[in-house]
Design a protein that fits this description.
Elements lengths: L29 E4 L5 E7 L2 E4 H6 L19 H5 L2 H14 L5 H4 L2 H7 E3 L4 E2 L8 E4 L3 H11 L16 E3 L5 E3 L4 E2 L2 E4 L8 E4 L3 E2 L2 E7 L18 E8 L2 E2 H7 L7 H4 L2 E3 L4 E2 L7 E2 L19 E2 L2 E7 L6 E7 L7 H9 L10 E3 L14 H4 L7 E2 L5 E2 L7 E9 L4 E3 L3 E6 L9
Parallel strand pairs: 6-22, 8-16, 9-27
Antiparallel strand pairs: 1-2, 1-5, 2-3, 3-4, 6-7, 10-11, 12-15, 13-14, 13-22, 14-16, 14-17, 18-19, 20-21, 20-25, 23-24, 25-26, 25-27
The structure holds manganese (II) ion.
Length: 430
């Protein structure tokens, strides 16, 4: 099916700000609460949130086979479960409805009132109920930096790293939409000389700059998804801040991997940008040497040129961009990750979320975590207000952004924002 919605020549009758992340070529999917406290599935063009439940009730999806209540839900899981053909029909139709010379909704003020909201009238929710969340570790630069910091620069990559996309199963209950503040977590830290572990608020709160992809039902238990077919099961992507407490992580992670140092919160941008919308931004990934085993071999362009940035904004102060990176640096592609995830027959379901792992690039400005940017605190970063950061302070807001751009169009993900609040003291909990 042609992706007519991607046509860069398309223009919309809605007013959109210049350089918006959400031109008519984007058409992302999300869930929001309206001014009347109604929860609905929607999309966004410019600074307008568009109620797909209302559009459906008013007949604008006529001719596409959809259940009546498909968009009147508080998650996208059922819509995603309907599969790629439905996503494409719906996304193309939305684009048609808002095309500059389509008068059907444009000139129907009553319908417009029911369908259109400005972004300040709605409250974004989590777009999916995340059943399972897996976090990969797929950036070679990041894995090399972390291996150098914690082990040995000569043998930074463990022997398995170049052979398979390393991952672990994360916690989905604490995945939160952009804007939700987080509490600095308490936890155990490495013992001092007396052998007793420390216990208190983490002193080393960090961000991890990641993208995450949302899947549809990909395979039944016992079956596999091939690298070649993987793209058909990836609905879309969000920006992802995998908050990490480095001191808690360092003490607890042996031998089974990350646990409470990661599970206290993970922030996602609320609009899922479809893989289809990103199709024009496919690029080749890095050369893989040694060549992957045949089940991980890929032919086509499976990486995506998505420009990334992270900023820190202290309270009552302006932000400072502390890192820029690019999703194209990923060593193991999403397609390889999904093929590997299912090669043992593990079933992947609608609404599952797969984090890329921290996306670090080759230069020091492109490191995707404070751990790397400050080299474990050795080289603090100076912010515009004159203060310094080794890690994230209380009341700092971390802002992540992502966009794609070529000669014809620019589209992006919107902000992925989280503020770190001071730890909750034990006494106040009762
Ligand atoms: Mn991570």
């Amino acid at each position: 099916m042609p992706l007519t919605a991607n046509d860069p020549k398309r223009k919309t009758w809605l007013e959109t700000p210049p350089n918006t992340d959400f031109p008519i070529q984007n058409i992302p999917f999300g869930v929001f609460l309206t001014r009347d406290d109604i929860i609905t599935i929607g999309t966004r063009i410019g600074d307008y949130a568009i109620d797909l439940g209302a559009l459906h009730q008013l007949g604008y999806f006529e001719g596409i086979e959809l259940t009546d209540d498909l968009f009147l839900q508080d998650t996208l899981n059922d819509f995603i479960s309907d599969g790629q053909k439905t996503w494409r029909l719906v996304r193309n139709r939305i684009s048609d409805i808002f095309l500059i010379d389509n008068a059907s909704l444009r000139d129907h003020s009553e319908h417009r009132k029911q369908v259109l909201f400005t972004m300040d009238e709605v409250e974004m929710q989590l777009p999916v109920l995340v059943g399972d969340y897996t976090d990969f570790y797929a950036s070679k630069e990041h894995a090399t930096n972390v291996g150098s910091l914690f082990r040995d620069p000569e043998n930074a990559l463990l022997p398995n790293w170049l052979r398979l996309p390393v991952g672990y199963h994360g916690r989905s209950s604490s995945i939160i939409p952009s804007g939700t503040p987080i509490r600095r977590p308490f936890g155990q830290t490495k013992p001092g000389e007396d052998g007793v572990p420390g216990f208190g608020p983490s002193k080393l709160i960090d961000f991890e700059l990641e993208m995450a992809y949302i899947t549809t039902d990909a395979n039944q238990l016992g079956k596999r998804v091939s690298v070649k077919d993987a793209k058909d099961y990836i609905f879309g992507l969000v920006l992802f801040n995998d908050w990490s407490a480095r001191d808690i992580q360092a003490w607890e992670y042996v031998p089974l991997g990350p646990f409470l140092g990661k599970s206290f919160a993970s922030t996602i941008s609320p609009w899922i940008v479809t893989l289809d919308a990103l199709d024009g931004f496919r690029v080749d990934g890095p050369t893989q040497d040694p060549a992957p085993l045949p089940y991980l071999a890929q032919g086509g362009r499976e990486n995506f040129d998505i420009k990334l940035e992270v900023a820190i904004q202290p309270e009552n102060s302006e932000e400072t961009v502390v890192a820029t990176s690019n999703f194209k640096y990923m060593y193991w592609s999403m397609a390889q990750q999904l093929a590997h995830h299912t090669v043992n027959g593990c079933n992947v379901q609608s609404g599952d979320m797969m984090g890329s792992g921290t996306i670090s690039g080759p230069t020091k400005e492109e490191y995707g975590s404070m751990l790397e940017l400050t080299w474990r605190g050795q080289n603090p970063i100076k912010l515009k207000d004159g203060s310094q950061r080794k890690f994230i302070n209380d009341n700092d807001t971390v802002v992540m952004r992502a966009h794609c751009e070529n000669d014809e169009i620019r589209l992006g993900f919107g902000d992925c924002i989280g503020k770190v609040l001071p730890a909750l003291p034990f006494a106040e909990e009762n």
